[in-house]
Every structure is written in structure tokens, then in C-alpha cells.
């Protein structure tokens, strides 16, 4: 896990494991939506999730193009965009995939304003 808003495309023509910006036709819209979420999240907006074993990982403005981060061939986000015209972003909300129940109130507080800002974009 991490703390970042990722947007299409997750797959790239070269299928290099990382570092390829795979721009969609709606790249500006996706960046706008991702920033709308990230800019209201106290950790995400810093661009420095500081996850164990990935302490040096950074994401400018708390967002990333999926394939720039790591290439995912056949992912749901890309499939839904291409075949169903769904504008989806992927939200990585925690360094821990399954946070303990005791941390859920904190996670809610970290994400509440971001969720509201994102919903307002509808």
C-alpha cells in the first residue's frame, strides 16, 4: 500500500515495470480529479507517504499516473475507462493493506474532507 491518488493509464505500450507516463486522452480531467482528492488529505497532499520499506517514495501533489508508478497490464481502472467510459481513479489510503480496527477512526478523519471534495466534482 501507499497513500496516493493514481489515475489512468496503469498500462503502457512498452510494459516497462515503472517510469513510463502513460497519458490518456482525458489526462487533464484525471489529474484534476486525483488532485481534488489528494489536496484535502493531510498525508496524501504532502506527496510523502513515508511507508515502511518505501520511505523515499514521493508523489508530487500526492498523485501519480499509474504506469509512471508501476505498470499494470489488464487492470480494472483502464478496462473501465476504455470499454465503459468510466472515469475512475485508484486511491491508495494506507501503507497497511489491512489497518487494525483501532486505526479506522483516524483513517476516516484523514479521508472525510477528501471524499466530500471528490463527491462535489460529480
TrEMBL record:
Record flagged with keyword Methyltransferase: no
Active site annotation, chain numbering: 92 (proton donor/acceptor)
Species name: Struthidea cinerea
Every Peptidase M14 domain range: 1-122
Keywords linked to the UniProt accession: Carboxypeptidase, Hydrolase, Protease
UniProt xrefs under InterPro entries: Peptidase_M14 (IPR000834), Peptidase_M14_domain (IPR050753)
Molecular function as annotated in GO: metallocarboxypeptidase activity; zinc ion binding
Name of the gene: Cpd_1
GO cellular component: a single term: extracellular space
A biological-process GO annotation: peptide metabolic process
Domain of life the protein comes from: Eukaryota
Name this polypeptide is given: CBPD Carboxypeptidase
Pfam families in UniProt: Peptidase_M14
Family according to the record: Belongs to the peptidase M14 family.
Amino acid at each position: 500500500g501507499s497513500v496516493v491518488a493514481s489515475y489512468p493509464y496503469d498500462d503502457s505500450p512498452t510494459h516497462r515495470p515503472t517510469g513510463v507516463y502513460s497519458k490518456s486522452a482525458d489526462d487533464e480531467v484525471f489529474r484534476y480529479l486525483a488532485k481534488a482528492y489528494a489536496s484535502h488529505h493531510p498525508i496524501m497532499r504532502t506527496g510523502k507517504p513515508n511507508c515502511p520499506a518505501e520511505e523515499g517514495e514521493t508523489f508530487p501533489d500526492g498523485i501519480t499516473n499509474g504506469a509512471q508508478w508501476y505498470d499494470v497490464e489488464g487492470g480494472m481502472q483502464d478496462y473501465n475507462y476504455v470499454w465503459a467510459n468510466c472515469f475512475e481513479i485508484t486511491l491508495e489510503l494506507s501503507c497497511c493493506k489491512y489497518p487494525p480496527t483501532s486505526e479506522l477512526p483516524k483513517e476516516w478523519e484523514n479521508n472525510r474532507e477528501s471524499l466530500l471534495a471528490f463527491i462535489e466534482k460529480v
